[in-house]
Amino acid sequence: MSLIDDEMLEEINRTVAEYGHRLLKKKDDEAVRYKTDSYVFETNVHFPTDLNLLWDSLRKCLDVIERSLKKDSTIIGWRKLKSIRRQLKGQFRRTSQQVFKGRKEKAIRDSVKAYLQFARSLQKRFAEVMPNLEAVEADSLRYYSDFTELLIDQADRRLLKEEPIPSEEKVYSIFEPHTEWITKGKSNPRVELGHNLLITTEQSNIIMDYKAMEKEKDTEQVRSLIERLKARYPHWSVFSHSMDKGFYSKENLDWLIETKWAEHVILPKRGKLSEEEKTREHTKTFVRLRHAHSAVEGNIHMLEQHGLNRCPDKGLDGYKRCVGLSVLAYNLHLIGNHLNAKVKEQKEKESRKRVA
To answer: For the CA atoms of the chain, what is the radius of gyration?
Structure first.
């Protein structure tokens, strides 16, 4: 399965979605009713802090050196590796206790300084031993050592110099560095770690389009989404397309209306409405289709319950592959349920005929 790329998965999903739409729709000439929403598909990472990310990078560097020592006993200077690991973990725990539960500013700063000083001393030793390692192990040590250098600098700037770290410089996981910090204004959870996943379904709940967004906003997706749907299903007539307020911008709404993409565009505005906007959003059709939009929330919930809530795969490619395979499984599940229901119905009819 790991050899399947994004293009192949998208082609498979397009074929399955098109078949499912034809199979499940009630009338042959029924127009499509699209519903689009997004949610956060989380990566498999722990909650990041400057201190625990630095601990992650340092312990992985020590793991690389430990593996190298088993292969090459001539590497010197690491006879007390186990003791170093214990000291590092103890310093990390003490510093974490001070930073998150301590009250005395001086004690907090002294503990952070000690932790960073220990980290810098280990960083120098990593640089010294790197030329003596095999190429594979040296590359691995260099990878984690680079993270160590970055995280020492960020911890020093934020905790000691009290500088704000720009979001584009922040790292939220050394194992899944593509992870994003996402806040959607919800009370629970307030913060989610992963990527926004864009989902578009139709009236039979088949997922017709999906996209894992990388540092993109919902408002930026509207035009590219419509272009993809037009290219994949060029002969379908679209009765309505509903989205929530997160996709709203005046440019998006005007563009959707001008291009006559759908007979009814359901794109509610955020904030205060003008009289014209109130009239548009309070028509019977708009209200009915906006209420029907909640069905996509149920589709997303079903995806999450079937495993698409946290990604077990590694790397961005694995993340996207997991999304594609999960959407494929979801659509096949719906199609299978429909076919099973038809078989059951046919058997019941035959049974009633035999009884009669």
So the answer is: 27
Give the integer Cα–Cα distance in Å for 207 and 209: 6
Comparing C-alpha atoms, which of 284, 292, 294, 251 is closest to residue 269?
251
How many residues belong to the chain? 356
Name the residue among 110, 165, 119 with its Cα closest to residue 145. Answer: 119
- For residues 351 and 345, what is the distance between their CA atoms, to the nearest angstrom? 10
Task: Name residue 224's amino acid.
Answer: S
Provide the whole-model pTM: 0.88
In single-letter form, the type of residue at position 24 comes to L
Tell me the pLDDT of the chain (356 aa) as tens digits: 778 888 899 999 999 999 999 999 888 778 999 999 999 999 999 999 999 999 999 999 999 999 998 888 788 888 899 999 999 999 999 999 999 887 788 899 999 999 999 999 999 999 999 998 899 999 999 999 999 999 999 999 999 998 999 988 899 999 999 999 998 877 777 899 999 999 999 999 999 999 999 999 999 999 999 999 999 998 899 999 999 999 999 999 999 999 999 999 999 998 888 898 899 999 999 999 999 999 999 999 999 888 889 999 999 999 999 999 999 999 999 999 999 999 999 998 888 888 86
- Residues in CB range of 261: below 8 A, 6 or more apart: 226, 230, 238, 241
CA gap 120, 139 in Å, rounded? 20
Contact criterion met (CB below 8 Å) for 34 and 229 = yes
CB of 126 within 8 A of CB of 148? yes
